[in-house]
Fold this protein.
Amino acid sequence: MRSFVNQILVAGCALAFLGGPAVGAEPARRIDVKRLSKNIDDVVVPLPNEIFAALGKLDSVNWKEFVRTNKGTNFTERPRIALLLGTVIADGFIAVQAEDAPSVKDIGQRVVSLAKGIGVGNSIVPHAKAITEAADRRNWPAVRQELDRTQNAVQQAMNEVHDEKLSQLVSLGGWLRGTQVLTSVVNRHYSADGAELLHQPDLLEYFQRKLGTMPEFTGPVASQIRTSLQEVQPLIESRDPISPGSVKKINDITSRLDSAIVTRNQ
Amino acid sequence: MNAPAMRPTLSTARRTALFLGLLLALQVAASRASVDDAHSFALQSAEPYVKQGYQVREDYWGGDLGVGEKKAVRQQLFKGNDYWFWMGTEVEQAKVSVHIYDADGKLCEQPDSWQKGHFAAAHLIPKATGSYFVIVAVESSPEERTHWALVYGFR
């Protein structure tokens, strides 16, 4: 009897040592999200193509009309360049949606020149070359991946030299341009599902918080962005469907901001 | 007479500082390398899905966790897209998990989400656009702290 008990004990210990079953324990069906606050990372900023992918499934979008290759203005202020860089990378994703190879290549060159303007050009030259090659082959998934790599390389290079704030401005520029295009499409052919894609209150709060840590980012564009985000907040934070009127308002606001970001006299 | 005696003391202090600095740099490099290794394993989990048309984002999230410790990554997801989150660690004897909860804290992942030792993946087709919580955990590990990395893809 004692030997049998010993065998059971040994088997039990062995099972415990091996770490139990291959498939994990059942996850909790519900968690208290308020208790997560101490151990939670900032919201992850989606790439513009993530929003475009969702939008493209709802409606047939004529992406060609949103393609923009205008070489635009050259700035010397690093925050302005960072914002513009984010916007131009978003333009790259739009050109990919439109499958417009010449525009993609132009945008790739523009990204390199802007990145050089803030001292991170070297980190993206290989990606810009890969964008051109993939665009020549009309390999759109590869172009998307290289645009993602470009943005990531730029932001990593900025983070490495402790320019995290510039990196956040790149994300903000991309998000604003993405939101402008999203609202343009939904404004033209309103659908509740399309409008729902604007339900991004945590992202908006994240950008507002980050801008709050940048008192040195001043000037008309900076204050226009701060005011505009405050105007947009009540329009998208409700869980109720976002109305056609709100979509139009957000489109007006983001169009104004986009124009301010790409032009010098702001 | 004091000066010659001071010289070796300063040199020793300098050498010790240099050694400690080097040790710290090596430790930082080793820690980074391990998160990078964890990233490679997370990407390895994602590989078969790329063939199914998922675009895997270049960016990734990582760090280290003790056994039983959890970390939440807040994520904006869009209705209409189909998402997979893949987690990995280089500690092969470890068991990790990843699960997705909606903004109200309700488990919302698809039933084909899986966990296999030092790999885990969670699948979500969001019913609504908004914020979600991706919770990563190290369930068991021979290490005191286990490096982890999380990548995601969508289509």
Summary: The longest strand of chain A covers residues 40-44. Chain A touches chain B through 47 residues (CB under 8 Å). DSSP finds eleven helices and one strand in chain A. The CA atoms of residues 33 and 40 of chain A lie 10 Å apart.
